[in-house]
Amino acid sequence: MRCPGCGLEGSKVVDSRSADESTSIRRRRVCDHCAHRFTTFERIEELPLIVVKRSGDRQPFDRCRIVAGVRAAAKGRPVEEGKLDEIAVAVEDAARVEGNDVSSERVGRLVLDQLTDLDEVTALRFASVYKGFTEMADFERELRLIKKELIGPAES
Question: pLDDT (tens digit, 9 = 90+) per residue, 43-58?
């Protein structure tokens, strides 16, 4: 490890602690040459999550796109801004569990599942774009699906 004080290599760790909710390790170091103290963080290098589009195109997963889509669907609804980020993180976490490649359809379904629990109207608005609704019957069918998920399969 190169010292930020003198630029020479060689330091020893004087303290290690868990950081960022145990997703990284914080290490306090001291330079062997100039005794300058500095902090480093060690994290697991994650492979990029790739979204496979319907066309077969592949692109890196982008939380900002999830947030933007949900924000548009939630416009004028009582949905807190912080919830948008929580949804994006939950979708990314769920997609990562399934592997490094995830279909755009699966991402949309994960978002819709999160929105159904949060706000029915926002979920319906999102579904109308995600599923490409073209007629009123599409809205009616999706509304029945949302209600069925909220009530539960045993009760419907």
Answer: 877 778 999 998 999 9
Residue 57 structure tokens: 């195109």
Task: Assess contact for 108 and 130: CB atoms under 8 A.
Answer: yes
The set of long-range contacts for 113-116, using a CB threshold of 8 Å and a minimum separation of 24, is 113/149, 114/87, 114/90, 115/70, 115/73, 115/87, 116/146, 116/149, 116/150
Give CA–CA dist 21/19, Å, rounded.
6
Which three-class secondary structure state does DSSP give residue 13?
strand
Q: In this structure, are residues 49 and 92 in contact, taking their beta carbons and an 8 Å threshold?
A: yes
pLDDT band at 151 (very low <50, low <70, confident <90, very high): low
3-class DSSP assignment, residue 67? helix
Residues 6+ apart with CB under 8 A from 115: 70, 73, 87, 122, 123, 126
CA–CA distance, 54 with 39 (Å, rounded to integer): 45
What CA–CA distance (Å, rounded) separates 18 from 16? Answer: 7
Overall pTM > 0.70: no
